[in-house]
Amino acid sequence: MSEDWQRLSARMLAVHPVQEVVRLLPVLIGVLFIGRGGQGQIWSLVGLGLAIAAGLLRWFTTTYQITAEHVRVRRGLLSRKELSVPRDRIRTVDLTSRPLQRILGLSRVVIGTGRGDWQGAMGVTLDSLATADASRLREELLHRRTEQTEGLVDVLAELRPAWVRFGPFTLSGIAAIGVVVGSLANLFNEVRIDEDDFGMLQSLVGRVASTPVWVIVIVLLVLTVVLVSVLSVIAYVLAFWNFRLARGEGTLRVTRGLLTTRQTTIELRRLRGAEISEPLLLRAARGARCSAITTGLRGEHSGSVLLPPAPRAVAHRVAGDVLEDPATATAELVQHGPRARLRRHTRAFLFAAAVTGLFALLWWFADWPAWLWQVALALFPVGALLAEDRYRNLGHALIGGNLVFRQGSLVRRRQVLATEGVIGWVFHRSFFQRRAGLISLTATTAAGRQHYTGIDVPAAEAVALADAAEPGLLEPFLVRR
Questions:
Q1: Residue of 15, 40, 171, 330 with fewest CB within 10 Å of its CB?
Q2: 3-class secondary-structure state, position 205
Q3: pTM summary value
Q4: What is the mean pLDDT of residues 332-348?
Q5: Measured on CA atoms in the order 138, 140, 143, 145, is the torsion positive or negative?
Q6: CB 313 within 8 Å of CB 289
Q7: Alpha-carbon gap, residue 408 to 466, rounded angstroms
Q8: What residues contact 62, with CB distance under 8 A and at least 6 apart?
Q9: C-alpha 194 chain-centroid distance
Q10: Whose CA is closest to 420, among 321, 293, 331, 332?
């Protein structure tokens, strides 16, 4: 590409003003309703004009330059700002396209460095470029050429319509409900809607007030379940429609999205492992997610997705294909023994006893209802079941050149980390762990979350595991017998 300073696509002039108007829409509506004597309309028009001007100004004040060593972006009018990223620090180049951008053939380019010091955690952003130019820029910055990778693409996974059934088990609809309720509350507060002005609303409130409480609770629960399920399915489709995971020449490429599309490229040489996560509801539906443990995506968790919620068997296959070792995703792990089991059951019992005892004391001394401590008795069997599940999910193994940890109950995670990516070990023992002869072994790495822990591993096994994973690293600290 030319090293001259260039402007973004002129077609963004039809995109950014619309985006600014949408972003300020709640404020503009509030001003329209609150204003008196016709002034609300005037100030709304003024605000609309300022939003459009701000969108247009971004094109006139933004330029970028691609050189052999750097990517530079200049923006601003009164306060001029220049961002510069060395090309050898570029880890990812993601392309996203919102609906209006897709119609106009534009893409938003996010150049990530894996650090938080370049325009936050997102790196340098070019919004917007022509889609063809954006694709060429991505190939150039990642030292790949499209001509080299044509015909060498191996598709590892594609979305099946039947996978949408896992949407309700992700509970992503709860966040959507929160956003909608918050937005409506703010809008009603801004326009000062009074229920006395609406007879229908008063009638509805009166009927609800005369309905038995248990009926209201059941109806609200049913409506919540239905609404969360529907919104979760919609969120799943919007986020993962057209999902495709493909392996090219030295890269993994993930494409997904219905209205807003996103293309993420992960270099295989930066891949350090994979994680299979199974939240409790998704696990009950025999589903799982899969994500990459890789350098260069720090603070960009959504960019590490290798598979959306899908059948568990598919998640295991994808993890095995990506790591080129199917055993890491399915092999039986070494359990942590009876002392680890006892710790989980002891903590569950003590929690149930504390809650039940507290309610019993309040019933005895403060005349609280007796049903509180009676209901709390259910914590004993429920806690025992949860403790047993947590223990059964504990495990570790060293398979080939990969370290495998598994733990969790509400969210069960199987983490596979290449031993070559381990840069250190942390051995942690609490007072009670010391008495039980257990250790929490943490492998530190530059990838993913930067640390992965095997919880309550028998002490001798933890030391042997770390020594076998990285021979010689612990040698100065070991006493051989």
A1: 330
A2: helix
A3: 0.80
A4: 95
A5: positive
A6: no
A7: 21
A8: 7, 8, 73, 74, 75
A9: 39
A10: 293
Paired tokens of 304: 């590490």
What 8-state DSSP symbol labels residue 1?
-
Q: Provide the strand spans (E) within 191-270.
A: 244-247, 251-256, 261-267
Give pLDDT tens digits for 15-48.
Answer: 777 766 666 665 555 555 555 444 545 655 555 5
Q: Report residue 80 as tokens.
A: 């001029």
**Percent of the chain scoring above 90 in pLDDT:** 41
Whole-number average pLDDT of the chain: 82
Could you tell me which residues come within 8 angstroms of residue 443 by beta carbon, excluding any fewer than 6 positions away? 403, 417, 422, 424, 425, 451, 452, 453, 466, 469
What order do you get walking across the sheet with 106-112 strand by strand? 124-130, 106-112, 92-97, 261-267, 251-256, 244-247, 154-158
What does 395-456 look like in DSSP terms, one character per residue? EEEEETTEEEEEE-SSEEEEEEEEGGGEEEEEEE--HHHHHHTEEEEEEEESSTTSEEEEEE
pLDDT for 105-154, tens place per residue? 899 898 877 655 434 444 688 888 898 888 888 888 876 544 444 456 78
Dist. CA 237–CA 256, nearest whole Å: 10
Condensed to tens digits (0 to 9), the pLDDT of residues 388-413 reads: 999 999 999 999 899 999 999 989 99
The 10 Å Cβ neighbour count of residue 67 is 12
In this structure, are residues 33 and 190 in contact, taking their beta carbons and an 8 Å threshold? yes
β pairing state of 244-247 and 305-311 = unpaired
The mean pLDDT of 260-288, rounded to a whole number, is 91
Average pLDDT over residues 344-355: 96
Which of 304, 318, 276 is closest to 121 using CA atoms? 304
